[in-house]
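Protocol step 4 of 6: structure prediction from sequence.
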Amino acid sequence: MSNPYTHPDPVATVNTTAVDPIVEAVRAKLHQRSQLGQQKYGTMLTRTDLSRLDWLRHLQEELMDAACYAETLIQAEDEVGADDTTYVPETDFGNMAQPVDTEGKMHNAPHEGAPALSALPLDAVVMP
């Protein structure tokens, strides 16, 4: 006899033909970043002029930037007394906070010369 309080196996019930809008949004952004990187730097990630240590340093720098962005937003939420007990992710990533510089230009990813979000005033973050 089956237990009426158990749920079916989520893996067995996944609709494999459905398109996950979150995954598609990430895919589109990855493609956009790749195009931007190729235009800006004239190369792709298949480049062979960097060592493993160079790649690790690049990764570390990006992760440190991400930690700074998270800290900036956490402090901003703490200042306004945001209730963080319930979070429903947006499926439209275009409505999420985006870093902008003092001239109003969007920065999808900081690179040399681009200001870090943590260095920008809090009003330089565009909120929905």
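Step 5 (inspection) to follow. Residues 50-126 form one domain.
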